Amino acid sequence: MSRTRLYRNGVLEAENFDPARISDHLADPSSVVWFDLCEPTAEDLAAVSEELGLHPLAVEDAVHVHQRPKLDRYASHLFLTAYAVDLDEYTGQLVKHEVAAFITTGALVTVRKSEGFRIDKVLERWDASPDLVKYGVGFLLHGLLDFIVDTHFEAVQTFDTQIEGLEEQLFDGNPKDSEMQRRTFELRKSLVSLRRVVMPMREVVNAVLRRDLHIVDQEIVPYFQDIYDHVLRATEWTESLRDLVTAIFETHLTIRSNHLNVIMKQVTSWAAIIAVPTAVTGFYGQNVPYPGFGHTTGFWTSTGVTIGLSAILFAVFRRKDWL
């Protein structure tokens, strides 16, 4: 499935026209064409490659999945790879949607590796900024990058909310250790995955702003600088959250360890108290004469010694906050 748009003289003139007419429209220097493909094969890209003179290596990367976010420069065009992301709030799993783009002076060709990439959201951004259409391909590229970076920012904000929930569970009176450990591990794993997507975007946006590439007009540079600022904020936020998740996990282990130490002190204290009557009754259970042997006074003496020593030990342990 393919989608197309034609902008002429800063105005949207046609949509969903026959892709075979792309070269005809590009013959007009006032025209800007957008062409979108979803999950194309090499054969699907062959026709577009001939029309725009795309480099074979770029076409190969556009077909293969799991490319690193990057911006490659070729003689006739630029090749962009990036990822939009979605975060499942219930499972903590990060879902990545890969997109590739061929950027020429008069056309933007987007290649989505899956239908999960919401291209309609990109179109909404283009339609919401009709005053920027006059900047041509730079305008189209801005809308695409702005959407991608916003998904990163939204994911980071959701991560922040999830991690705040973990912080509240740290000092819960009845913590669910296994659930918290699983959640912490899932969030940390997703943050590592997000970092691999967000970090390279600094280089991508910075490369777009290079003047020698002649992609962006000076009038639209502030809009790309705003994207770059969002990329930096998302990157720094991701790094801090990753460190915070690690700190939460380590703090959780420390709290559990301290709690276990308290339990061990309590058990040891009670064991010491219980050892007193065991020792006394064991002594008085000898089959040899002793003071009070065979008399009622022997029973009351052993009982008094047991209760007295147990009480003394209980008081000492309470004073030490072991009980």
From TrEMBL:
Compartment(s): Cell membrane
Q: Which InterPro entries match?
A: CorA_cytoplasmic_dom, CorA_TM1_TM2, MgTranspt_CorA/ZnTranspt_ZntB
Where does the sequence pass through the membrane? Answer: 267-285, 297-317
UniProt keyword Transmembrane helix present = yes
Keywords recorded for this protein, A-Z: Cell membrane, Membrane, Transmembrane, Transmembrane helix, Transport
The membrane-topology field of this record reads: Multi-pass membrane protein
Gene3D superfamilies attached to this UniProt entry? CorA soluble domain-like, Magnesium transport protein CorA, transmembrane region
Pfam families per record? CorA (PF01544)
Q: Which family does it belong to?
A: Belongs to the CorA metal ion transporter (MIT) (TC 1.A.35) family.
This chain belongs to the protein called: Magnesium transporter CorA family protein
State the species of origin: Catenulispora yoronensis
